[in-house]
Structure formats: structure tokens, C-alpha cells
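Attaching the record inline, Q. Sequence:
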Amino acid sequence: MPEHSESYLAALWVKRRVEAWGDQAPSVDELNEVLRRLGRWRSRLLANTFVAQQGARIHGGLFAGMAYVDHAAEGALMPRLLGSYESELQSHLERLVQGVEAIIDVGCAEGYYAVGLARLAPHAVVHAFDIDAAAREACAELAARNGVADRVVIGEAFQPSDFEAFAGRRTLVLVDAEGAELDILRPDLAPALARMSIIVETHDLYRRGALAAMFERFAATHDILRVDQAAKAPVMPGWLRDLAHLDQLLAVWEWRAAPTPWLVMEPRWS
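Structure, as predicted:
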């Protein structure tokens, strides 16, 4: 959609929302929703500017230099382009990919991790899964553009029993499935998980108790580190450094509606 049309639609949405308040003061939740809508709109404009200024290529971070997309399958594009996206995990990923034979990425979207880790770990095959057909297509295209299509195997739904096909191989598992981590990470159905390194984003926002369930399921077999979202301090391109501070904050905003802490779980026995 053209940028001016997107701006018009965002303004129209806000206008109608505000008009619906009438003489009543809006609730905190209502104001939060309006601010989030405006923030997402501005974030998309920043991403458009990024691509216009320097192309769809990741600027910094663990995947610096990777050819990327100009539209995300889901979530915020700008922090991915900037290289600050989920930067809290970068040191853990860099360490855990060393020597792995297989990487399983459940909820791959357009392939930020699937393709990025295939580039980072040329010795590994990445198995990327997403239930959304458009996301799978985007991931395949991204893998081809980055020259790693021969090592990125794309699939649809992933079942707990599918982990057993990787038993005996050094495997890193990534799961970002909007609450479906409770259905996927089932060590009672997948004994092979006991010897795999796992990074999972937990979503109590969507399924209450998800975080506690992961601790309970893996405490006996893994050392578990909780990683929370933190402030971002990326190296910004010059054009972004010249913008207002609010734009710089929105450039690294990942659109989270609530805390979604990660668990980095390393097996005690390899």
C-alpha cells in the first residue's frame, strides 16, 4: 500500500476512535491502544525510509549484511532491519550455534532466524516451520536471496514427535509460536528434547502459565536462564541519528503488548 494511503488510513482510524469517545474520557487501555496504533504506523514509515535510504539489508547486529525483506510476515520490520531485534538473545545464539548439526525454527515467519542462522552456521541445516503459507513462501525467497536455500528446509506444522527425527544430533531449537510453545515443547512426548539446546519465547499474554510450565517441564534436564527484554543501543545509520528521539525509540520498538520473556535452556548432558 502506498505510504500516503497508509498514513491516511491510520489518521482515519484514530479520528473515528476519538470521535467515539464523545464527552467521555477514554480509559487507560483505550489510550494505550490508540498510542500503539500510531506507534506501529510510525514504525512502518521508518522502515520504508530505511529501505529507501539504504535498501532492504540488515544494518547491524548478529546478522549484519544479510539481504532482507521490505515487508515483514508479522511484527515490527524496523528493528529487524536495524539489527536490534531481540538483541538480548544474540550472545546466546552466537554461542549455541557453535558445532550444531541441525537448527529447528518453529514459527519462522519470513526467515529472520532461519536464514540468519544458516548464514552464521554454514555447517548446519536449518529446518524452518510456519503454519502460514505466505510466511513459508517469504522464508524460501529470503533463503534463496542469501544463497542458503540448500540448507533451509521449510515445513508447515511441527508436532512434538517430530523432535525424535533429530535424536542423537547436536540440535538447537527455537520456538516463537504465540502460546503454542505449550503444545510443541512436550518432553513427555519427545524424549530427544532432553539433549537439545532450546530458546523459547514464552507467551503468558496468550496462554496463562506458559512460562511456569516451561520451567516445570525442563528443570530436571536443562539449566534454564530467563532473559527479559532490555533497553536497546544499536549503531544507528546517520539519517536515523538525525531524527527526533521518539523516532529513534520507535525504530527499536518490537511491538510487544506485554512482557514475553525468553528461556535459554541448555541440556545438562550432551
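The longest strand covers residues 222-227. The beta strands are 102-106, 125-129, 152-155, 171-175, 197-201, 222-227, 262-267.

More tomorrow.
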